[in-house]
Amino acid sequence: MRKLIAGNWKMNGLVSSQAEIEALKGLTGSATCDIVVCPPFTLLDRAVERVKGSSLTIGAQDCHAQQSGAHTGDISAEMLADIGAHYVILGHSERRVAHGEDDAMVLEKAVAAHQAGLISIVCVGETRHERDEGRAIKVVDKQLRASVPEGATGQTLVIAYEPVWAIGTGLVPTNEQIEEMHAAIRQVLQERLGSDGHSVRILYGGSVKASNAEALFRLRNVDGALVGGASLKASEFAAVTLAAQTS
Ligand code: 13P
Fold first, then answer.
1. Which of 19, 110, 126, 189 could form a disulfide bond with 197, CB atoms 3.0-4.6 angstroms apart?
2. Does the active-site annotation cover 162?
3. Residue 152 belongs to domain spanning
């Protein structure tokens, strides 16, 4: 499966940060994996313009479930597609915690994203407490079943497994834990989507960086990465994409 490397800038990036996207274009010129950068809303339009003619694509970090209307401060999937964004991250744990997003909301947003022609990157993952209690697989299974839309395919959906305790902490699950979880996710996708479940890419996210990426990409059912902190510097992010091409 062709790997996907997605950079989630979170609430980082000013107009001057476009230099990183410009540099990335040079560093990832003939990449054999798909690469998407997800800057904050304020930079999306400029970023789309900047990557034109390159192999990079641009994604957003959230969208509203409605197409338009009285939703102050929100951005719809249609608006994102309209400016040329290709992807949207949905259900990131930071949004689940800070904005009270639940699986039902993530499902609605994913449906809206697919209707608008965007590829959704739906995030799932357990907390430290849930893993310590031996419930990690059960928690992710429930998130997936409640948030993956009927009829999704590898062309419209990407799943990102991001253990909450591995985000921004430098902690990474063991290879066995990642393979076990990704196999469980693959199984649910096949149950929900039939043969289309085979082609949905399953990314790993949580403290991915250049130095650990190659080993992660060799694991079974790891089809790429959702990268936070290490996506902010073009050279580091480019090194992660290079690892995807050599592993
Ligand atoms: P870090 O790579 O900074 O751990 O963040 C992961 C993440 O949340 C990506 O969405």
1. 189
2. yes
3. 3-15+33-82+101-246
Per-chain mean pLDDT for the chain: 97
| Cβ count within 10 A of residue 127 | 16
Q: Is there a domain that residue 25 lies in?
A: no
- What does the alpha-carbon distance between residue 232 and residue 17 come to, in Å, rounded to a whole number? 9
| Ligand 1 surroundings by CB, under 6 angstroms | 8, 92, 162, 167-168, 205-208, 226-230
Residue 49 annotated among the catalytic residues of the structure: no
Domain count, the chain: 1
68-80 confidence digits (pLDDT tens) = 999 999 999 999 9
How far apart, in whole angstroms, are the C-alpha atoms of residue 142 and residue 46?
A: 37
Query: At residue 205, what is the residue type?
Result: G
- Nearest CA owner, ligand 1 atom 5: 228
Residue 124 lies in a domain: yes
Question: Residue 51 corresponds to which tokens in the numbers above?
Answer: 């990557």
Q: Which atom of ligand 1 is nearest to the CA of 123?
A: 10
Using 70 as the pLDDT threshold, list the residues of the chain that sit under it.
none
Residue 200 belongs to domain with CATH number: 3.20.20.70
